[in-house]
Amino acid sequence: MINEIILKPIQIKFAGKEFGNMAFKYGDRQEVQGRRDKIESLYSESTLLGMDTSGGNKLLDLDTINTDLSWNWFECDGLFTNNPKVCLVLLPADCIPLVIYSVKNNNLGLIHVSHKNAKTGIHIKALQHMISARNENIDDLRFYIGPSISKESYYFKDIEQEQKNSAEWQPFIDNYDGNYHIDLKGFVVQQLINCDVEPSSITNSNINTYGDEYYSHRQSVLEKTQEGRNLFAVSFVNK
Q: What's the fold here for domain 3-148+201-236?
């Protein structure tokens, strides 16, 4: 029901429809709260820090912020910490949960990469933050791409002309069956590689949220399926 991956020094937990919708907006409040209570019990010695996302480029460094509630929510699209008692939380549906972490230092970031803010380079801004604000060496950084929508499922009848004409985007846009298919994950990976990130430093879950196992906003629009939000949480491995 809840998947767990260990990529020392971090651990990642994520869940979809089998666990249930995590957003109050799309379900019974009491049921959603019950699921959140279960997650809180898994991190009983940690503080849960989540994002109220907008698809913008706002990154927030949390180490100087007082977080003494069981759940804390911040309006941003990226969170950073080096606190081993913190768990970063995102409730995505198709957008990329991008984890950036150091194998040398206790530096951890969770970024919400949407189609909108991928265009403005939030993933590059997050990488630069790790290097400049947290004094990381790029060779010590690792990246994890969580469950998100894949190219075969992410399509539109039309897209903006600027994106069609973009040399950066063109390798990641295909036109077939009368639709423009966008490889958002491929675009983000290539952009990181263009910034001298080693391909071997990037782990892709290769999980497509469009289907039966995860909530997908795009699927809800095209097929009128139930709207909901998945769980994605990352923290340091308990020592």
A: CNF1/YfiH-like putative cysteine hydrolases (3.60.140)
